[in-house]
Amino acid sequence: MAEPAPSFSPTDVLLMRRALDLALLGVGYARPNPMVGCVVADANGRVVGEGWHRQYGGPHAEVNALAAVPADVDLGQCRVYVTLEPCSHFGKTPPCADLLIAKGVRDVVVCNLDPNPLVAGRGIEKLRAAGIEVKTGLLEKEGRWLNRRFFTVQERQRPYFILKWAESTDGFVAGPEGQPVAISGPAAKMLVHRWRTEEQSIMVGTRTALNDNPQLNVREWPGPNPLRLVIDRNLTLPATHHLLDGSQPTVVYTHGQAEDADNRTYVSVPGSDDLLPAILDDLNARQVQSVLVEGGPALHQMLLNAGLWDEIRVLRSSTVRIGAGGVVAPPLSLTGLREQRTIGPDELFVFF
């Protein structure tokens, strides 16, 4: 007989939402670990401690939250809200399930179970075996959306792919022969730089790298730079281009051979049109959790044809027109529009 669904109070919902908000503070820094938030509340529902996973390799959310609880608080009367099942294994830090048991907390409410085979329900089992009441599934959909990158890696054994481009009001992404055109306004540009801080890597194809000479770093928003990924099949990218400047870690996928140097790693891939299997193998080996694909249309189309995308973000200008002869944006005939909003003079469309 199936276990009845647990019941949750409005206070439970409120405090789990707080835990999810805390988890989001780890965006860009917790990866490849999931973002996790934790709230400790006393018997009256008053928050007495909270924390989040601030940095990969650093203390987990439960450790930070419990460390913030004043010494005179009786943890035996406290409920812990955590957005992901407490870990049950030794990794870079000791198991959080063991810490909760040692602290003698009264009960634990969990948003999502951890699909990682090293955890996968063992954290819950360990807590219950120690006599701690555990409820699961509170705001489960919201938790999965927050950690959609982590869940994709664990469940599909590949990174989370976001395809992004800007297109003119008449549906072009560049001028004739790939000539760069400033399409997006300042507000959209700032938003794109924020997106870069949120993803572990950023990818472009050969023609975009040659024509645009992009830096693929973060300048308009505070946060970490992503790992740069560039497809340069025949090693045609000039040494003077930004992607080879050694300013941040960069992986170059090529059919040729070249020596690694100056923050650059060259990965030789098979000499065929289908580069994706070799690239996916390399990304998985590097524990890359997400890829923001900024162009160009040939790379976008290759990923679309392979069904290798999770989100598409299109910034469409209402003022810039390129005209005949430009590079056409990838055609979209998709359902699943998740979001549509105005960003300055541009319109953002997000498909999921």
TrEMBL record:
Active site per the UniProt annotation: 62 (proton donor)
Binding site for NADP(+): 166, 208, 212
Coiled coil location: none
GO molecular function, one term: 5-amino-6-(5-phosphoribosylamino)uracil reductase activity
Record-linked Pfam families: dCMP_cyt_deam_1, RibD_C
Biological role: Converts 2,5-diamino-6-(ribosylamino)-4(3h)-pyrimidinone 5'-phosphate into 5-amino-6-(ribosylamino)-2,4(1h,3h)-pyrimidinedione 5'-phosphate.
EC number: 3.5.4.26, 1.1.1.193
Chain residues that bind substrate: 196, 216, 219, 294
Keyword NADP: yes
Cofactor(s) the protein needs: Zn(2+)
InterPro entries listed in its UniProt record: APOBEC/CMP_deaminase_Zn-bd, CMP_dCMP_dom, Cytidine_deaminase-like, DHFR-like_dom_sf, Eubact_RibD, RibDG_C, Riboflavin_Biosynth_HTPR
Native species: Hymenobacter busanensis
Keywords: Hydrolase, Metal-binding, Multifunctional enzyme, NADP, Oxidoreductase, Riboflavin biosynthesis, Zinc
GO biological process per UniProt: riboflavin biosynthetic process
Higher taxonomy: Bacteria, Pseudomonadati, Bacteroidota, Cytophagia, Cytophagales
Name of protein: Riboflavin biosynthesis protein RibD
Family label: In the N-terminal section; belongs to the cytidine and deoxycytidylate deaminase family.
PANTHER family reported for this sequence: 2,5-DIAMINO-6-RIBOSYLAMINO-4(3H)-PYRIMIDINONE 5'-PHOSPHATE REDUCTASE (PTHR38011:SF7), DIHYDROFOLATE REDUCTASE FAMILY PROTEIN (AFU_ORTHOLOGUE AFUA_8G06820) (PTHR38011)
UniProt binding sites for Zn(2+): 60, 87, 96
Highest rank taxon of the organism: Bacteria
Cofactor binding note of this UniProt entry: Binds 1 zinc ion.
Catalytic activity: 2,5-diamino-6-hydroxy-4-(5-phosphoribosylamino)-pyrimidine + H2O + H(+) = 5-amino-6-(5-phospho-D-ribosylamino)uracil + NH4(+); 5-amino-6-(5-phospho-D-ribitylamino)uracil + NADP(+) = 5-amino-6-(5-phospho-D-ribosylamino)uracil + NADPH + H(+)
Metabolic or biological pathway, per its Swiss-Prot or TrEMBL entry: Cofactor biosynthesis; riboflavin biosynthesis; 5-amino-6-(D-ribitylamino)uracil from GTP: step 2/4; Cofactor biosynthesis; riboflavin biosynthesis; 5-amino-6-(D-ribitylamino)uracil from GTP: step 3/4
